[in-house]
Write a structure and sequence with these properties.
The structure holds 2 protein chains of 2 kinds.
Chain A: E1 4-6, E2 14-18, E3 23-30, H1 35-49, E4 56-66, H2 68-86, E5 90-97, H3 102-114, E6 118-123
Helix pairs in contact in A: 1-2
Chain B: H1 3-9, E1 15-20, H2 25-42, H3 46-66, E2 76-81, E3 85-95, H4 99-110, H5 114-127, H6 137-147, E4 152-157, E5 162-172, H7 188-200, E6 203-210, H8 213-226, H9 233-253, E7 262-270, E8 273-283, H10 287-299, H11 302-318, H12 327-336, E9 341-346, E10 351-359
Antiparallel strand pairs in B: 1-2, 1-6, 2-3, 3-5, 4-5, 6-7, 7-8, 8-10, 9-10
Classes of the chains: A alpha/beta, B alpha+beta.
Amino acid sequence: METLTIEQTELSPKVLFNAETGKLLIQGKSFMENTIAFYSTLESWLDDYMKAPYEKTVLQIYLSYYNSSTFREILSILMKLSQLQNQGNNVLIEWAYDKKDTLALKKGKELAMLMKLSFEYIEK
Amino acid sequence: MKISELYEKLKNDRLGLAYQGIMSDDLTDRFIQLSETNFDTQEVSPKISNKVSFLMFECFQNVVRHGLDKGYYGNFFLTRNLPSVSYITSANLVANNKIEQLKEIISDLNNLTKEELKERYLSSLAAGEFSDKGGAGLGLIEMARKSGNKLDFDFVPWKNETSHFFLSINMKTNKKNESIPDDEQIQLNEIIDLQKKLVENGIIMAFKNNFSEQNIVPILKMMESNLNESEDLAKNRKLIYSIIELSQNISKHACQIEGYRDGLLAIGIENNQFFVSTSNLINKNDEDNLRQKLEKINHLIPNEIEQHYLTALQESVHNKEQKSAGIGLIDLANITKENYSFEFSPDNNSMKLFTISIKI
C-alpha cells in the first residue's frame, strides 16, 4: 500500500501515513475552510489500511493553528482507529504540543475523553 | 466606538486595513499581498495595482526605518481601497524637535512640478543623499512622483516629546480616471480621527474585506509579529483560534452582496485582555436562531460548557454537512470561559448587521 504524503501549506498540515511502519503523522496548521475535502482523503486511505494494518498503529497529531471543524475531522479519524482497536489491533495516539501550549493539550485531552484509545502527550 | 460603528465607517471599503504595532519588511509584504489580491478581484489594472504596491512599500518603509516606538501605538498603517481611489497612510513617532525640518522637506517637495520632481530625484540619487538610517528623502520624492498627488501630512502630539507623523497619499484606481466621488473622499483629519478612536478603544487591527480562508493568512502573520510567543503561548494560541473561527464565520455565513462576503474583523486589547470582534451582514431570518444559540452558550456555567462542546462535537461527526452546527462558537466559549457580547443592528429590510465579541 502506498504511503500517503501531503505537503504542508499555510492552511493545511503535513500528512505522512505509512502503511509499512504503521506510523501516521498529521503536523502543522489546519484551518482550511473545507476540512471535509481535506480529511476525506485521509479517511479513504485509512479504510484501505484497515484491511491489512501493521501490527501497531501510531498516529501522531501535532497542530499549532486550527479551526473548530478540524477537531470534528480528527474525531472522525479517531473513530476509525477505534474500530481498528476493536478488531484486536494495537493503536496509540501521540498528541504532541508545543511547550506551554496548554490549549493544544486541552484539545487533546478533550478528544481522549470521547474515545477509548490510549493517548500519550508529548511536549515538544 | 462600537465595532458596528467602525463597520459603518468602513462600509464602502473594498479593502480597509488599519494596523498599529510593530512593523517589519515582512508585514509590508503582507499588506501589499492583501492589496494586490483585492485589486485582482476588483479587476484593477496591474499597472495601477503595482503603483499602489510601490507607494505602500515606500510609505511603510519610512516607518520601518525611522519609527521610534516599538509599542502597540507607536506605528500606524492604513490602506483603504474604495471603488475608485486607494488611500495609503502611515504614522510613526518622531521627536518634536525634528518636526520643523520634516515640514520643510515635504512642503518643498509639494511645491515642485512633475519635471522638477524628476530632476530632484535624479540629482538626489547622484548625490547619494542618504540619511544615517538609510533611505532618506528619496522615498518621499518617489512617493510624490508616483502618486501624482501632493503628500498629505500632519503631526499629532503623543507623549514624551514625540508626535505621530502622519503621511498620506492617494491614487485614483478607477479605469476611466474619473474624478473621485464625494463619498469616497477622505481627508487626512478623518484618518487621524480614526487612528485616535482605534487607540482609545484599544484596537490594534481592523480589517474590512471580502473574507476568505486565504486572506486570513496575512492577518495571522501580522498578529504573530505583535505577539511575544514566549510570554503566554496558550493565550496567543487562543487569540489565533478565535480570529480564525470568527473570520470563518464571516466567510461561511455572511450575506453575499455582489459576490462578496464582506465583514469587519477587529482585534484589540482592553484591561490586559485581548478581544476579537467581527461585524457582518446576515439574513434577517437567521437572527432568532443565532440569538438563541448565543444566549444558551452565555447561560452555561464554565463546567457545563465543556460538556456542551463535547456533546456538540460528537454530534457534528454524524452531521458533517450540516452548515450551522455552531460548534466553533461553543468551543471559543469553552476555551476562554468568557461570555459573548453581541448585537443585531438594523440594516435594511432583509438584513441585519451582526456584531460579536469575545475576550481572551
